[in-house]
Amino acid sequence: HKLCERGIQFVDSDATDYDYTIVGHSLFQDKKLGSFEASLEKGLDFLSKIEGPYILLDGQDSHSVIGAWETFIQSDAIAMLKDTMLKDRSLYKVPSVGGRQYWGKSEDWGINDQNYVPEDWDKHSDKLYLTGKNWLGVEDNSKFLDTYESVMKLFDVSLMFQHPHEECHEFDLKPSQDFYYNEYRQKVFDVTNNLDFMFAKLRNGKRVSPEMWNQYQVTSKIHLAPFGYGEMAPRDIFSAAVGSILIKPSMDHLETYPNIYEDQVTYIACKNDFSDLEEKIEYCLDNFNILRRELVENMRSSYRSKYNENYLADYTENLFKTIGLM
154, 203, 240, 241: which has the fewest C-beta neighbours closer than 10 Å? Predict the structure, then answer.
């Protein structure tokens, strides 16, 4: 309804009357095929059957353009949209595992030559735009607890995130994508296993029921949210919903819209290698009541303001005008 008010209407893929096609990334790239070449062939074949102008939407979790980029630069797409990107676009030309800057180079993990850099970046990157949506937009703020200060917090820190992750492949990345994911998150446990706090965590990374996960989250003072395959997750705003402090690696490198991450204002940033994690946890616990009141209320206020009922329609209208679709 909000989009229609601005002259934008989305129709089903089998419609016969439309101006532009938006193509989701699962249709133009396939990480499970084992190579960029196989994914590229499949993606370009699909796109060749589209009649009229089209836009690609790369909805993968991270700022990386791996896989989608190769198809994009060889296609006739008007533009490619992403949920998140690096604020400093020049960093895309710095080699990193899977194009994820927070994982560093494969050599940092004892693996040679498994880094990714998108080819011809400067030639095509001006056609990359933010979608105007991200993971936090899926949260229902009507479920925010108004009485969170009365909830008994049984745990000091919630580590209710998956680790280890089961085997998961991304093209021909060696040894596998989950290796880097698990090695990165293991740093959290290298620190917390030596701390004398009450932790809520999964046993061997095994999932629990949504009800049990919620219970552990609600009753934890701090929610620790390390990066995974991407930087953002719904648990980030869920922390504010249940009155807990969010600690996660700094988000200063990331560009997304809307963006409510502000260190010391809406969350507490730690270093990407978690070398200061113990210090950050102690700081939050020692000042819990004051910090919680400030951080939680600031994040809730920022979220409700930026993720309002008009934000996506407003952004989409401006985006289409920028690209030249309206």
Answer: 203
The Cα–Cα gap between 73 and 156 comes to 48
Residues 5-29 pLDDT 10s: 999 999 988 888 999 999 999 999 9
Query: d(Cα 73, Cα 225) in Å, to the nearest integer?
Result: 34
Per-residue confidence (pLDDT) for residue 142, from 0 to 100: 79
Whether 269 contacts 251, CB under 8 Å = yes
With a cut of 90, say whether residue 140 has pLDDT above it. no
- Beginning with the edge strand found earlier in the chain, give each strand of the sheet holding 80-82 in spatial order: 21-24, 54-58, 80-82, 128-130
Residue 241, H or E segment: helix 235-241
For the chain, the first-to-last Cα distance in angstroms comes to 18
Other Cβ atoms less than 10 A from the Cβ of 158: the count is 26
Per-residue pLDDT tens digits for 159-200: 999 999 999 999 989 999 999 999 999 999 999 999 999 999
Give every CB contact of residue 21 below 8 A, 6+ residues apart in sequence: 50, 52, 53, 54, 55
Measured N-to-C along each axis, helices 177-192 and 277-286 cross at an angle, to the nearest 10 degrees, of: 50
Of how many residues is the chain composed?
A: 326
Residue 243 contacts by C-beta under 8 Å, 6 or more apart in sequence? 145, 148, 149, 151, 292, 296
- What is the four-CA torsion angle of 59, 215, 247, 145, rounded to 10 degrees? 90
Q: How would you classify the pairing of strands 245-249 and 199-201? A: unpaired
Q: Please classify residue 305 by burial: count the beta carbons closer than 10 Å to its beta carbon, then call 0-12 exposed, 13-18 middle and 19+ buried.
A: exposed
pLDDT at position 201: 95
How big is the CA angle at 94 (ends 92 and 100), to the nearest 5 degrees?
65
112: its two tokens: 């040679």
**Token pair of 321 as six digits:** 């005008």
Tokens linked to 59: 């909805």
My answer on whether omega of the bond before 95 falls inside 30° of 0, hence cis, is no
Beta-ladder partners of 81: 57, 129
